[in-house]
Predict the structure.
Amino acid sequence: MRFDIILHSLGYLLRAAAVTVALSLAGIALGFVIGALVCAARRSGDRFLRRLGGFYVSFFRGVPLLVQLLFIYYFLAEYGLDVPAVVAAIGGLGLASGAYQAEILRGALNATPAGQAEAATALGFAPFDIWRRILLPQALRIAAPPLINEFILLLKASSLVSVVGIAELTRVSMNIASMTYRPFEAYLAGGMIYLAINLCLAAFGAFAERRLAAGGST
Amino acid sequence: MSEAMIEIKRVSKSFGALQVLREVDLSVARSEVVCLIGPSGSGKSTLLRCVNFLEAYDSGEIRIEGRLIGYRDEPGGRRPMPARDLREMRREIGMVFQHFNLWPHMTALGNVAEPLKRVRGLPASEADERALAMLKRVGLADKAAAYPGKLSGGQQQRVAIARALAMQPRLMLFDEPTSALDPELVGEVLEVMRDLAAEGMTMLIVTHEMGFAAHVADRIAFIDSGRIVEQGPPKKVFHESAEPRVRQFLQTYHDRNSF
Amino acid sequence: MSFAVLLHYLPSLIAGFGVTVLCWSAGSILGLAIGFAVALLNRLPAPPLRWLLRAYVEILRGTPFLVQLFLLYAGGPYIGLRLSATAAGILGLGLYSSAYFAEIFRAGFAAVPQGQIEAAMSVGMTPGDILWRVTLPIALASTVPAIVNMLVILSKETVVLSIITVPELMYQMQTMAAETFTAFDAIFAMAIFYWLLVEAVSRVGRRLEIKLTAFMAREASA
């Protein structure tokens, strides 16, 4: 094995890793906004909105991400829309992640026992105050660990945007592989960088979970 | 007949820095029913679990019909008993747990028949037949095909008793058998245990049912802080004890249960 | 997309679907087998072995499936592992999913109540009998929902195999799209097809789940 090749292109790989992280961050943020809206739709009193939210979740969780990404890519091409590939990639990641985040948020809201809202109502809380002071703080606490997990999943899934030509970590590993004729070392290096990022995220997740759990008891 | 069924001598046991049993002595004769009572955390469940070595005691000795359980005395000192010998001894000691511990993937009949097939090596038809007879004995022949999840707590505990009895044990251990039950279901389990006592089964029972203990036990042992501080016939322990801890415990019990 | 075009490509699409199903089922079986072995070995009281298994699981779960596939298919020959695209795809799916299955089985083992094992010990059952008759059935029953969920996820992951030229459905569809300039129609059809497939598999899975775990259904209070 020739790891000097990897060391040689390490700067290139690390810049690509930064692109991967940036893409994922943008994707998770967009996904959170979409997820919150879809979650609200699924919990609304309107039957049509509930259906629509359910349809969204079912579709974007049911269709493979690669198909979704290519769909967006071809859709834009078909209608001659001149959108940078990066925007399409972030849009694709965000749309897909939105479906998963909607379910995470919905689960977190459902996990707060109904009795607590009842107790607040009995004490004369206004509905908005119940939402703001009782439900939301608990729901976010419950949702935080799965959201961090979703970020890890999205970061790995972002490797698929390499097929639409964005110079993120997987694409750059491919480039190094074909330039150096050393695919084993190139992909191993790319994989190790993904692993390092994800282990950091997992450690952060565990830390956050401990902090939140400690906060919950006081 | 001279030999005790269970002979506990100077048994001590610690969980880390916490000493839960302190040089406990207790013996149970053949066909005798002994109830262990005492405040929670006093060590009574631990003592019971030491008798079939689900919990390893640190020092002292526990003998079942004269045979030391859990350890083997060798010239160099004491060694853990071979697992095979321990299993052989456990077969003769029935145990009933607070939370029943029925196997959820087997029917009531399956739960009772399983040890007969695996441990006693009975052919399936014979094991099932004996299992059904045992279920009949605890009044649950009609529930043979039901899974534990579909049975009430009282019924589950009776199946658990049948499972232990089917092995034809020499003695039975009960670890708070009615503590996890709704009050209206306690009676059916105690009735089965009462019948068992009447048939001459040797029983060591950890319980909070003072009424049952008073009527069925031959002897009561009161444990506090890992020591047996009082023992004797129910009448003596319940009504004549001079030991302040026993009197206080019984007073609390009476206060809580009278209205 | 005209009907004639579709008819022309239908045989290759059907063949592609066959490869998809083959990769999915073979990869899942491989993943289940390795994952189960990892979870069982993890129960042995050997710290270095556990450490090794932990690393195995973390590496496979911490890296993208696509990168694992590239490493196996493109990098493999450089360490003497020469595989066809389909073989690399199946092996890749199997290794990737084995880490997730190992975690599912580990959680299943951890979910077996200690008391039910103690009950088996108290009647004198051997460790082997306790494992096969008590621990495993209870552990496996509790893992059915997670396994079904993982199988659904894997059915979607098979499209990634098209990137390393495994001739599965996605690959055949893209070939057709490139030759007939009907990319948008083709990918739209793929989206609908996979959506229906995943919905159908999920539904069958849920029914299977209910059937397999019906006896485990407990009343609220034990």
Remarks:
- Chain C has eight helices and no strands.
- The domain at 3-221 of chain C is CATH 1.10.3720.10 (MetI-like fold).
